[in-house]
Amino acid sequence: MNIVVDQEIEYIKSQQQQLNFVVLSEDKNKITITYENQQLAFTITNDGFQTETDFFETFESMLMNVFPSFQQHFMNEIMKKLK
């Protein structure tokens, strides 16, 4: 996978309201967000998303794995778009 870091940062910022998270800080390719009062710091690379302990190919897969309740929220958003 080849991620364009700047484009991915803009995508993440644009999805805050729809996906119910908040970007707390951004320092080049290092981002910190909060979701349901839990913080997550991660680094965006050309290959994907690196947390302190894990690597994910997509932003959404990272959120679904780190925040179990995000999976249901994300599926609800997909179903809205399919209608």
Automatic annotation (TrEMBL):
Pfam families: GSKIP_dom
Gene3D superfamilies documented for this protein: Hypothetical protein (hspc210) (3.30.2280.10)
GSKIP domain: residues covered: 35-83
Name listed for the protein in its UniProt record: GSKIP domain-containing protein
Source organism of this protein record: Hexamita inflata
